[in-house]
Amino acid sequence: MHTQSEEMTVSKTPAPKTAAAPTKGAKTAAKSEADVATLDAPAPSNRFADRFAPPKPPVRGAAVADEAPRVAAKGDPKLVNAWKTKSGAELTDAEVLAMPDSEYMNAKQVEFFRAKLTELKDGVLSNAGETTEHLREDTTIVPDPADRATIEEEHALELRTRDRERKLLKKIVQSIARLDSGDYGYCDETGEPIGLGRLIARPTATLSLEAQQRRELKQKMFGD
Questions:
Q1: What's the mean pLDDT when you consider all of the chain?
Q2: Is 32 helix (H, G, I), strand (E, B) or coil?
Q3: Which fold has domain 60-222?
Q4: Tell me: the pLDDT tens digits for 23-40?
């Protein structure tokens, strides 16, 4: 009897529960969370790889923003037809931007940019003359070292400004020559139109926005 009672007690003891195997849906959810965590984690930095990685393509948004004023101008009927009754030198920036694409670099646009470049050239020459005159006049010997250092710093700044103006003047002269030859307004690398918006903002530009971005990326990578 005693042995039979013990067997009955053992048989009534519940067997230990085993952990249920994860369902297919649970496995998929766990995998998705792991994938998301992997995507969100920052990529390891490798300065060597970053330096010699191929250049990224030019940002298209910048080109779109560059042409935004032109798109807005084309919606104004008064601006669209202004070029038909005015000379190129009389046109405003907005009126040039509103001109049809088929009139790109026509005689009036050439006249417009020639006037803009000539005005820019005159301004640079005037500033250069004032800088030279100021340097010539300011030759007084100053005994105080602090005052002398200040004057020398001002002279160095004026000389750097003069050097920038000299380089700008060279680009202006080259741009006017491009007007004469019929090359003005077209990219040196691709031959495509540079765009009126970019030319108005930078009359001496010789590259389209995308070509300029590609060149800057190469210079950043290789230092050329």
A1: 74
A2: helix
A3: Four Helix Bundle (Hemerythrin (Met), subunit A) (1.20.120)
A4: 444 444 444 454 544 444
